[in-house]
Structures are given as structure tokens and as C-alpha cells.
Design a protein that fits this description.
Order of helices and strands: HHEEEEEHEHEEEHHHHHEEHEEHEHEHEH
Number of helices: 14
Radius of gyration: 23 Å
CATH topology of the largest domain: Aminopeptidase
Oligomer: single chain
Number of domains: 2
CATH class of the largest domain: Alpha Beta
Helix content: 25-40%
Largest sheet: 6 strands, mixed
Number of strands: 16
Length: 455
């Protein structure tokens, strides 16, 4: 089935981006984002954009395309969509993950939803604006970074450190929203449509390495042995059993209200003492939603890699483990380290904790011109629909821009079929795909947003 004529350029651009295989495995030699940067520059060439390229490592290109506004003092808008993708599994895909096949109105492939779809929609919306004769008051900046999937060190993080003026704008819109909230209540959602989520912030990724040392010896004599593996295992069990107290931010009550739950469940989800048993009950019917809600009001700990020992009959002399902590706003590194040490307690003997990378949680206010414009642009495309703020449990490049003073949201539009559970299952998963309708909605949203903010 072919895409509608009006969306054919959008589909073709997305297909080219997917087929370029800009796979970022975290190593400096991966990514090859120069391929997608070249495609996007070619697509936008001749539309009046100024192009700036950043390449801290060979082939790791970030493209910045700037359409100058008519008023240098006016507020500016940045649309950001990263151009790298995560690796794919060897099995589990129904179609070629880099074939970018269009089948029954759906484009399949790695990056189709994270986030080459939004990248393509942003570029198409910008070109449509120019071709319609639109001239913005303030600058319209398209930021297509490398290395987002490995933390942004070679992309936005590098630019924010070395040349921040090029990417600093009044407002920024990127990934992290656009899906429909699940409706968990017994009555239909207002006006027959589920609310759309807009990310106004994100939790902070703080990564640590736990190291344990012991004394090697023969494994046939383990009594009172100084075993590094046992020390790591004890530390892992202590962290796994730790449940920090919940903290509710300003978006929590609005988010819970938008789920449509009954009054008793709503009250329990907003009560620190009743929260966990209520989430446990919710998980029997809505496991993904319960897990996300838990993450949104807790600092979470995930011990993901554990390596210790050298041989089955040798008591381990050393070992290491990686700990992924996702923090809520207003959490400092010293406070977090103190909490980890308190959790480990007596299990910390022989175990040290070292920082790998720490990024604080960031958040923008769910009010003001950008919020109003996102809500209005969503209604321009979908009709009567409510937008609801949330804070993502994962990190995006938006954190770098918030730290530069930009108001940043994760906002787009998908289609009616994409709810939270489906959206999360396709991110970094098998059979990633996006509908042509969702692509079209996203491009229309960005076009409407730019007109409302820059006219």
C-alpha cells in the first residue's frame, strides 16, 4: 500500500534515515551519523536555512539548521530529533530492521519510533513552512544531534560545553511525549478521547560501579573465605530490597486524574502509605502502567552487570557491578551516595562505590507560552484533546538545553493506537514501527506549533 501523496515525502525521508543504519553501540567509532546529517541537509537545502556541523569525532556529525527570524529580539524555537539509533537483536524481528518497508500504512525499522520519525516530521514541517511563505519572527532552529543513544557526549553534550550559543533557544521540543495515556477507569474518557502526554522533565541518570576485593584461595575450603563474589551478591541483595520513600511532584495529581481511576484508587495513589500496595494491585491488570507510575515517584535502583571471579574452583579475588540509579529532581550526588552507603550498611565491607556518570534530573514548568502553544497545536491537529504533563523515567538530550535555560518539552502527536504500553514496548524493542498517520500528525503538529510561537 502506498502512502498518501501528501505524505509521500515524509515517508521517503524516514525510509532514507532508517536505511542509513546509524547504529550507536556506545563506542566512538559507531553511529556514523554523518550519513543522516547529509540526508537532512540535502532535504533542507535551498529553503533558506544556515547549516552548522559539529563533529568531535570522525563521522559523528550533529547538524544544526537555522532559519533566521525577522526580529533578532524575538523568542526562538528549536525542534530537536536525534539521528542515531540503538542496535538490534539478531532475532525477534518480523522484517528487516533496516529495510524501512512500508506495509499497510506502517513503516517498519529501527528508529521508526525512536526517533527518526520525529526527525523526519520536523524537517518536513520546516520545509512546508518555508514553501508556504511563512517567515518567523524569531529563529527556527532544527537540531539533529549525534550520540543521543549513548548519553550525548559526542552530540548535544559536546555542543553545550563548547559552543552553546548555537543551540540555545527560548523553547525546545523533542521526544518523550505524544502517546495517549491509558484509560484505567470504568467510564469513558472526556469527550471520547484519551489525553496526550507532554514531557516537561525527566529523571536524572546516575551511574555507579561497585567494586569488591577478596583473597584468592582454593574453592574446596570456603569456610570464612574472603570471597569478592559473595560481597557483591550481598550488596546486590541489599540494593534490590531497598525501596526509597515516594515523592510526588507538581504533575503527579494531574497525571493520576487523567488515568480515569475511581476516587478511592486516586486517593490511594496519592497517599505515600497506600501507594505501593495500590501499585501491586494495579500491576495484576496493568503491569507496564504500574511500573511506570512507580518509577515516576521513586528514585530507582537497578544493578545490571555483575562480573566476578576467574575460575570455578578459585575463590574470587575481585569483582565489579554496575548500578543504574534514576533520581527525582532535587537529588544531589552526595545525598545519593550517602543513601547507597546507608543501604549497603554492614554489606559494604570490602565494597567501594565509584561514580561513572551523573546527570541531575531536570524539569520545566507546565505553564506559559510553550505549554499553551503545545496544547493549542495538539487541538489544531486532533480536535478536542487534553494534554497532560509528565516527567519521563528515562533521559533525553533535553536535559542539556534545560541546563542552559531553555524551556524544553517532549511533545509530538502519534495516532490513536499508540498508548503508553505499546509506545514503551517498541522503544529499543523488536519490530519497531510507526504508522503513516502518526507521521502525518507529527508533521502537522510541528508546523502548527511553529506558526503559533513564531508568528
Amino acid at each position: 500500500m502506498s502512502a498518501p501523496t501528501s505524505d509521500s515525502a515524509l515517508v521517503e525521508l524516514l525510509q532514507r534515515l532508517i536505511r542509513n543504519r546509524c547504529v550507536n553501540d556506545g563506542s566512538p567509532a559507531s553511529g556514523h551519523e554523518a550519513r543522516n546529517a547529509a540526508v537532512l541537509e540535502e532535504y533542507l537545502d535551498g529553503c533558506g536555512f544556515e547549516f552548522t556541523r559539529f563533529e568531535p569525532e570522525p563521522d559523528r556529525t550533529t547538524l544544526v539548521a537555522t532559519l533566521r527570524g525577522t526580529d533578532p529580539a524575538a523568542a526562538s524555537l528549536c525542534l530537536m530529533g536525534h539521528i542515531d539509533v540503538v542496535p538490534v537483536s539478531d532475532t525477534g524481528w518480523s522484517r528487516d530492521p533496516f529495510g524501512a518497508e512500508l506495509v499497510d500504512g506502517v513503516v517498519w525499522g529501527r528508529g521508526a519510533l525512536d526517533m527518526l520519525n520525529q526527525t523526519a516530521a520536523q524537517a518536513v514541517a520546516a520545509r512546508r513552512l518555508v514553501e508556504s511563505g511563512f517567515r518567523p519572527l524569531g529563529d527556527l532552529v532544527l537540531l539533529f544531534p549525534a550520540d543521543e543513544e549513548a548519553g550525548g557526549r559526542l552530540g548535544v553534550g559536546w555542543i553545550a560545553t563548547h559552543d552553546p550559543d548555537v543551540i540555545t533557544t527560548t523553547w525546545l521540543v523533542t521526544e518523550g511525549g505524544g502517546f495517549h495515556l491509558p484509560w484505567l477507569g470504568p467510564t469513558p474518557p472526556p469527550r471520547g478521547r484519551r489525553p496526550v502526554c507532554v514531557a516537561v522533565g525527566e529523571k536524572g541518570p546516575m551511574w555507579f560501579e561497585l567494586r569488591a576485593t577478596g583473597t584468592p584461595g582454593h574453592a574446596s575450603i570456603p569456610f570464612h573465605a574472603d570471597n569478592a563474589t559473595e560481597k557483591l551478591a550481598a550488596a546486590a541483595l541489599a540494593l534490590d530490597a531497598h525501596t526509597p520513600d515516594p515523592r510526588f511532584d507538581a504533575t503527579w495529581g494531574t497525571l493520576i486524574d487523567a488515568l480515569g481511576v475511581d476516587a478511592a484508587t486516586r486517593d490511594a495513589l496519592c497517599d505515600p502509605g497506600e501507594l505501593l500496595p495500590t501499585l501491586e494491585a494495579l500491576a495484576t491488570r496493568h503491569p507496564v502502567e504500574a511500573a511506570v507510575l512507580h518509577a515516576l515517584c521513586h528514585t530507582t535502583y537497578s544493578l545490571n552487570v555483575l562480573v566476578a571471579g576467574t575460575k570455578i574452583n578459585v575463590i574470587a579475588a575481585e569483582g565489579r557491578a554496575t548500578l543504574d540509579v534514576r533520581t527525582l529532581p532535587e537529588t544531589s550526588v552526595p545525598d545519593l551516595l550517602a543513601e547507597i552507603e546507608s543501604v549497603l550498611g554492614s554489606n559494604q565491607a570490602g565494597v567501594t562505590v565509584e561514580e561513572i556518570a551523573t546527570h541531575p534530573a531536570t524539569r520545566s514548568t507546565a505553564a506559559g507560552p510553550l505549554w499553551d502553544a503545545v496544547a493549542a497545536a495538539s487541538r489544531d491537529v486532533l480536535g478536542s484533546v487534553d494534554v497532560v504533563p509528565w516527567v519521563t523515567p528515562f533521559a533525553t538530550d533535553a536535559r542539556f538545553l534545560r541546563q542552559l535555560g531553555t524551556t524544553a518539552y517532549g511533545a509530538t502527536l502519534h495516532d490513536d493506537s499508540l498508548d503508553l504500553a505499546t509506545w514503551l514496548s517498541l522503544f529499543h524493542g523488536n519490530d519497531e514501527r510507526v504508522s503513516v498517520q502518526a507521521l502525518s500528525n507529527a508533521a502537522l503538529f510541528y508546523e502548527a506549533l511553529a506558526r503559533r510561537l513564531l508568528s
